[in-house]
Amino acid sequence: AYLRLAPLAVIFLLAASVSKTEGGSPTCGETCFGGTCYTPGCVCDPWPICTKNHIIASTAKTVDQYR
Description:
three-stranded antiparallel β-sheet; 3 strands; 16% strand
């Protein structure tokens, strides 16, 4: 039974380690106003700070965010 669960455990460990991989400086230098960032490529994800749009597949809420 444990042999069948081993690949599943490996998948969860890899997903957790990939979840936080982002490159570059995450800040854009502005705060969100009304939930909107005016710097191109920035999003208001952790309100109230605009961050660069480093969305990867594991954190994307929609398919359009990942493209």
